[in-house]
Amino acid sequence: MSETLSRQPTESARPLLRRLAYSDLPAVISIERRSFPAPWSLAMFVLELSKPSGICLAATEDDRLLGYLVCSRYDRVWHLMNVAVTPDHRRRGVASGLITRLIEEAGRELPFTLEVRTSNREAIVMYERLGFRSAGVRPRYYRDNGEDALIMWLD
């Protein structure tokens, strides 16, 4: 398979969508720390990248990482584990482009699931636009502050 997967349009740019590489991890960690109150460790990303059944994608522009996505495949489901975009490129279709490419790559044979903070209305609206639907709540899911997680599914 070619390293280059596709280009997806955004309001101001057309990021290149490709597989996430180990060499991207310093930029991933930078975005992760600016995006989440309880960021993943480097070891967590290395573990996910090493899984042959997972799909990890990067959105780049001029060799700069704009965002990334990490999705693991389990027996009968895809679990969207992590999506983040650098703060100065949010709301430009980067995350939506990554998720759309994920669905194209994985196919629609198995459902997709994810958890999202109940307070993250912008992300919830984006997931709903992409076809995800709420299927319940995981109480006190997030360890940093005890916030609930909304469980969403795309069948």
The CATH fourth-level homologous superfamily of the largest domain: Gcn5-related N-acetyltransferase (GNAT)
**Topology as H/E string?**
EEHHEEEHEHEE
Radius of gyration: 15 Å
What portion of the residues fall into strands of 2 or more residues? 25-35%
Termini separation (Å)? Answer: 26 Å
Structural class: alpha+beta
Strand order of the largest sheet: 1-2-3-4-5-6-8-7
At the fold tier of CATH, the topology name of the largest domain is Aminopeptidase
Number of helices: 4
Question: Mind describing the biggest β-sheet?
Answer: 8 strands, mixed
Low-pLDDT segments, ≥5 res: 1-12
Shape: globular
Q: Kindly provide the name of the CATH class of the largest domain.
A: Alpha Beta
Give short descriptive properties of this protein.
155 residues; alpha+beta; 2 domains; 8 strands; 27% helix; globular
In short:
This protein has 155 residues and is an alpha+beta fold.
Explain how this protein is built.
With 155 residues, this protein is α+β, with helices and mostly antiparallel strands. The protein has 2 domains: 1-69 and 81-107, Gcn5-related N-acetyltransferase (GNAT) (Aminopeptidase, 3-Layer(aba) Sandwich), CATH 3.40.630.30; 111-155. The chain has 4 helices and 8 strands. An 8-stranded mixed β-sheet has the order 1-2-3-4-5-6-8-7, with helices on both faces. β3 (55-61) and β4 (64-74) form a beta hairpin. Residues 1-12 have low confidence and may be disordered.
